[in-house]
Amino acid sequence: MLSPELGHYALALACVLAAVQGIIPLIGASRRDARLMALAPGLAIGQMIALSASFLSLIYAAVTDDFSVQNIAENSAVSKPLLYKITGVWGNHEGSILLWALILGLCGAAVAAFGRNLPSALRARVIAVLGLVATGFELFCLTTSDPFARVWPAPMDGQGMNPLLQDPGLAFHPPILYTGYVGFAVPFAFAIAALIEGRVDAAWGRWVRPWAVAAWCFLTCGIAMGSWWSYYVLGWGGYWFWDPVENASLIPWLTGTALIHSAIVVEKREALKIWTVLLAIATFSFSLSGTFLVRSGILNSVHAFANDPARGVFILGLLGVVIGGSLALFAYRAPALTAGGLFAPISREGALVLNNILLCSLCAVVLTGTMYPPFMSLLFDRTISVGKPFFDATTIPLALPLFIFMGFGPMLPWKRAQLWPVLQKLWIAAIVAALACGLAVFRLSGVLPIICAAAAVWVIAASLTDLAERTKLFRAPIGTSIQRARMLPRAIIGTAIAHAGVGITVLGLAAMSQAQHKIVEVPIGTTEQLAGYTWTLKAVEQEPGPNYTAMVATLEVRRNGQFITIMHPSKRSFNSQNQTTTDVAIHTNMLADLYGVLGDRHGPDNNPTYVLRLHYNPLAPWMWLGALIMAFGGALSLSDRRMRVGAPQRAKSSSATVSVS
């Protein structure tokens, strides 16, 4: 029978199993003891089962309204809808850390289940590293973030969930985002295991890349869902505000993207090995830092949880052990690393190196802008604001050359290439981008939006050109092209799709710079004009909800006298939390969003006025559509048999020398 006590004991058992998982297989691998190494998969699966029991116990407590559990009393209520009772389990600090630990346990179990083709010593070390990381998380849960802590006397009803979190999009956003964060623990574990073992080669690159791609896909979807939530729940009419928590997810996404591209070079050319190892360490370190800094209260955000000094101290210690320890190991092994895998600057490797430089430069800019204000406040007691103007001015100049070279990279040969033949293949893409630039001059205002739109079209056209060249489209009979398309590796198609997704997202961002909006205070029956549309407030009525009351507006939209849609923006009042939220109304045709927000009510009861925020957002859906296309491209690449089938077994070597470039 599930209960808080069972959940707590299961969490403690998982912590013990994780500690054993982190120690015994490492001893076995160092001694080449097959029996000790063989314990690793069973320990990983056992830890995952214990964590699952603990997490299910917390869900059971929430569903059954067990308010003797402090976590449930503070974040749930009897009137709360069942969906949000379940998803609210991870909508708070304690539950989110337990979810993080569960996903990490699932990653360890996945390596145990799907890593049977790995050399036994490497497999044992990877699972052991994951166990050591999991031990830190589970100790954090047990000591300063216990999700099963009791409260007495138990209240008759709970305080309820933050109304902003009672939304389907945000309900499923954390598990997807956390899977992306925690998924990079597997490449991190491979990197640490390789440094301990003293070998990084092409087979290692092939083993790492699928895990990195899978984590990147989840992180991409998680970021997109968070952006979509801020767009339609917060009611600000925007999609990304360079909030510290938004940046905390973008930073590992940038280094994770660089990691994927570097792993390709390791697999294909056995070059950039040490750089790839460093990227694997950095990506997971940024995942840890971003998530935990928010929970320590150092970063203030609309997303942040409550500040707790004890948690902050534990977090600082855990960050020091994981990040400091991994970087110390990296520095210790560095003198033994040797170079290899030479290539010319103009080559696919060279393009990927440039890709890495630009991505890491973007990461450095975002990291600096995010962390500089809190550290200035901490060290000098000075308040500094770093916002959208800074990030736009510093990231766009770095992103534009990245987009330009994205078109060249996939078409360059390995090792050594000539630029002119590639340019000859891309002339159609260049013409399409030039035409797009000319069109943008008439449709967009501002130099940067025009350049960004042209660069986005260039990326899309170059991706399609790459596929056309590989299938000999228009240069061979259509049947031949179809046959060649069927024979193309899914990884190549997935890469082109992911790159096109980047272009679609950038097009949406460029178009959103031209968004129009107005804020008005009007009585019922008033008509307003915006972006060629007439918006008429027809009525405002009170409607009851499951745990709130809503003030719902009826907003009619017409264009040139022709009916377009009826929109129902609302304002919800949650009595138990004494909070009010907005429920945005959005009408889209995929080329633009009509976006309405209902604000406060003013004036006398017999002639009230209502605040309306009206927006016209061109190509807004393309931002999230592009992100989904990116993730789909990554998933398609992941389905390539060459990525799903393990690399050939590495030749045994008695040497402890690392051959890395």
Automatic annotation (TrEMBL):
Residues 316-641 form the Cytochrome c-type biogenesis protein CcmF C-terminal domain. This is C-type cytochrome biogenesis protein CcmF. Belongs to the CcmF/CycK/Ccl1/NrfE/CcsA family. Residues 90-296 form the Cytochrome c assembly protein domain. Coiled coil: none annotated. It is a multi-pass membrane protein. It comes from the Bacteria. Pfam families: CcmF_C (PF16327), Cytochrom_C_asm (PF01578). One of its GO terms (cellular component) is plasma membrane. The chain crosses the membrane at residues 6-27, 39-63, 97-114, 126-145, 176-196, 208-230, 250-267, 274-293, 313-332, 353-375, 395-414, 426-442, 448-467, 488-512, 619-638. Keywords: Cell inner membrane, Cell membrane, Cytochrome c-type biogenesis, Membrane, Transmembrane, Transmembrane helix. GO terms for molecular function: heme binding; heme transmembrane transporter activity. It is found in: Cell inner membrane. InterPro entries: CcmF_C (IPR032523), Cyt_c_assembly (IPR002541), Cyt_c_biogenesis (IPR003567), Cyt_c_biogenesis_CcmF (IPR003568). It comes from Acetobacter syzygii. Its main location: membrane. The keyword Membrane applies. Required for the biogenesis of c-type cytochromes. Possible subunit of a heme lyase. One of its GO terms (biological process) is cytochrome complex assembly.
